[in-house]
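Archive record
______________

***
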Amino acid sequence: MEVTNFNITILSRLSAEILVDTHFPENTVVISFYDPDGIPLEYGVFSKNVLPVPVDDFQINLPQADHIAEFVSKAVSNGQDIICQCERGRNRSAACAAAILEYYFGNGQKIFDDEKYHPDEMIYYAVLNALEKFYS
């Protein structure tokens, strides 16, 4: 598998709202995690580039993992950057970003080592396993 260079950014909901209101980056897709009882962030005209993923912090599995892997694969194939966004930008989005970095570059541990993040291990392993399955 040949991987083009792409960037991954981890954002909180507030940071993403500001980005949407000011300047959404070109050639970028978003994996947007939100609480199932909450309201997903409205990306407006950029919605075609967004994969909304309802998940709460206490789930024991991630049924959307295969969809995330497919979405990521398509973005990477298209040379697009990826934003992982959740409410606070610390747990769910950090876990997803770590899994993507681990799969493509073998350096997802750097997210776990950064004190500002607390990646959700269930999401990390679900996305990593789905990526591995998608490419097998």
